[in-house]
Amino acid sequence: MTPLFQPPYVLVDEAVEALRRQGFALISAADVRQWLPARADELDVLHRGWSDLPSDAYLRDGGRYRRRRYGCFVQRGTELQQMPHRAHWQPLEYNALHGGMRRWFEPLLPQTLAQALWPRLLLRVGELVSALHGEQPWYIEAHTFRIDTTDGIGRPTPEGAHRDGVDLVAVFMLERSNIKGGESRVFEADGPSGQRFTLSQPWSLLLLDDARVIHESTPIQPLQAGGFGWRDTLVLTYRRGGFQGDEDAV
After folding, report:
1. Is the full-model pTM beyond 0.90?
2. Does the domain formed by 12-239 have CATH 2.60.120.620?
3. Are 118 and 112 in contact, with CB atoms under 8 Å apart?
4. 230-239: strand order across its sheet
5. Which of 6, 64, 69, 181 has the lowest CB atom count within 10 Å?
């Protein structure tokens, strides 16, 4: 059995200070549920959308292990606006494997967006990034991911250790099913220090100050040879000034 490295959780009220001090913060599932707030059944209903994710057709390593959907939003104070569907774009500076491509992922499911929890979740994370960087419009990209072991191994971050070119990255761990691996690693962008831990609690949260740290997740494998497993996450990125690749955003 691959060991699970326990995350160094902090309380929600300590998250911004942890981000300022070390560039990342981890919040336990129990604290996330209380902070949103969200009942267990609300979280379960929202997670159902992960069973209907199309394959990522843009993987340059030829893999079939990643499924995803994608959507964009703008937060202004307590208001959240869904934006017209658009391509996801990153420069090569931040994604050496898939940068420079306009990737037209399938949109988020209407039933996902219809859940009352969805805007509440995005706005709550937006409150944290505003506390960290000052209140302003935030350009949010939402990715629903399932990494599975279709190929025998699944790679949550095939691009390796990286930054995303945004102000804050929020990674919600939703489920680990029948897998080993998937260890999260966070390193100083301009220094030697780093930490490693395994996110295992459903709806625990990893927050990353993208300017200060780089991050990656190690590959996953099934627990039993020939078995099948997956790792579900919700990744939200918050960026000031506009979406990457869209100089006309206001």
Report:
1. yes
2. yes
3. yes
4. 24-27, 204-209, 168-177, 230-239, 138-148, 66-76, 79-82
5. 6
